[in-house]
């Protein structure tokens, strides 16, 4: 049976997760989606789109979707749903897991890799994070959970931008980009997001594309950007205007940095170094990903990880005439950037 794609929806309280979910659950998009609610908060999914008595753990929607409250842990809920689908008791094509506003999406994502039974039934597609433009700056300032949710994201939706000054929204976007340059940002109005931008984003696929916002890379110092930039004091170069004086004071603990080199890596040295780093800093490493140029291989090597779980795979061959090189992005909490960058330098041939 084909793997069931799963999407993790996260975001701080009031960021519009429920609005987005209602849209997904009530829209006539022709997809049968199972939604797993981590909690029914005060913003309950409206009963008018449910077609059953809410004592049941699994509720059918009028458009064929299914809504399920987590009573036990996520693992057993996922396992239950997959079993019901196999037996033909429930019909759904994909799963969306809404985490609580304070949750760290890391352990939820890890469930899909660490548990064999879950890994054989589901494929984790992406982590979506909603950020409320009106309260986002303050939440990022005061709550590490909000910063972690941004760091984990494959796609970021910024809601309630109509309630803010454009300059403030731009400043927030800029700040988020420094925390997570791999996740595209999209401004959304009342959860009106085309389904195509919510599903099948393939954020966890090992693929040879490493999307890092190009503007982020250009802010480095010329061509040699092994040491891309310190996020709390970089100048705005390249004609980038920034009229937010407080912009420079955000020294968020969730940061990203990029390593690039056109020299080849020594495979054994790199493996030992990354293994050691993950052992020591794994809990603080939110997402990391790279496309690597390895000595002795005519193919790209792709690696990525969440916390301590790291995987790698052989990618396509380097095309004739293609400039070989490695590009890696690390997103984490207070990661020792210099230790990582110097360590990676030492793994080069």
UniProtKB/TrEMBL annotation:
Pfam family for this entry, one: CobW_C
Location of the region described as Disordered in the Swiss-Prot/TrEMBL record: 218-247
CDD domains: CobW-like
Keyword annotations from UniProtKB, A to Z: Chaperone, Hydrolase, Nucleotide-binding
Biased composition regions of type Basic and acidic residues, renumbered to the chain: 218-243
GO molecular function, one term: nucleotide binding
This protein's GO CC annotations: cytoplasm
Catalyzed reactions per annotation: GTP + H2O = GDP + phosphate + H(+)
Boundaries of every CobW C-terminal domain copy: 254-348
Function as written in the Swiss-Prot or TrEMBL entry: Zinc chaperone that directly transfers zinc cofactor to target proteins, thereby activating them. Zinc is transferred from the CXCC motif in the GTPase domain to the zinc binding site in target proteins in a process requiring GTP hydrolysis.
Family note: Belongs to the SIMIBI class G3E GTPase family. ZNG1 subfamily.
Name of the protein described by the UniProt record: GTP-binding protein
Lineage: Bacteria, Pseudomonadati, Pseudomonadota, Betaproteobacteria, Burkholderiales
């Amino acid at each position: 049976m084909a793997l069931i794609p799963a999407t993790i929806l996260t975001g701080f309280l009031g960021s519009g997760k429920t609005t987005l979910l209602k849209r997904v659950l009530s829209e006539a998009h022709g997809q049968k989606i199972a939604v797993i609610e981590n909690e029914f908060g005060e913003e309950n999914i409206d009963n008018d789109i449910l077609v059953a008595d809410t004592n049941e753990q699994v509720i059918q929607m009028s458009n064929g979707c299914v809504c399920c409250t987590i009573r036990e842990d996520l693992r057993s809920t996922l396992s239950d749903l997959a079993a019901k689908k196999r037996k033909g008791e429930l019909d759904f094509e994909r799963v969306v897991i809404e985490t609580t506003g304070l949750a760290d999406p890391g352990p939820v994502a890890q469930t899909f890799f660490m548990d064999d039974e879950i890994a054989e039934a589901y494929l984790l597609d992406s982590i979506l994070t909603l950020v409320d433009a009106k309260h986002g700056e303050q939440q990022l300032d005061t709550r590490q959970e909000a910063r972690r949710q941004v760091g984990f994201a494959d796609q970021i939706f910024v809601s309630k931008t109509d309630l803010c000054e454009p300059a403030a929204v731009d400043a927030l976007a800029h700040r988020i980009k420094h925390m997570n340059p791999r996740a595209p940002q999209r401004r959304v109005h009342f959860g009106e997001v085309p389904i195509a931008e919510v599903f099948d984003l393939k954020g966890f696929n090992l693929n040879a594309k490493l999307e890092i916002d190009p503007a982020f890379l250009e802010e480095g110092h010329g061509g040699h950007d092994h040491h891309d930039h310190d996020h709390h004091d970089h100048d705005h170069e390249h004609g980038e205007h920034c009229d937010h004086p407080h912009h420079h004071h955000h020294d968020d603990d969730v940061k990203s940095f990029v390593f690039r080199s056109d020299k080849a890596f020594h495979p054994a040295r790199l493996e030992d170094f990354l293994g050691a780093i993950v052992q020591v800093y794994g809990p603080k490493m939110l997402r990391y990903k790279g496309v690597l140029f390895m000595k002795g291989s005519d193919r790209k090597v792709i690696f990525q990880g969440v916390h301590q779980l790291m995987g790698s795979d052989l990618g396509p061959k380097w095309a004739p005439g293609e400039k070989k090189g490695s590009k890696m992005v690390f997103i984490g909490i207070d990661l020792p950037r210099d230790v990582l960058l110097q360590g990676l330098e030492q793994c080069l041939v």
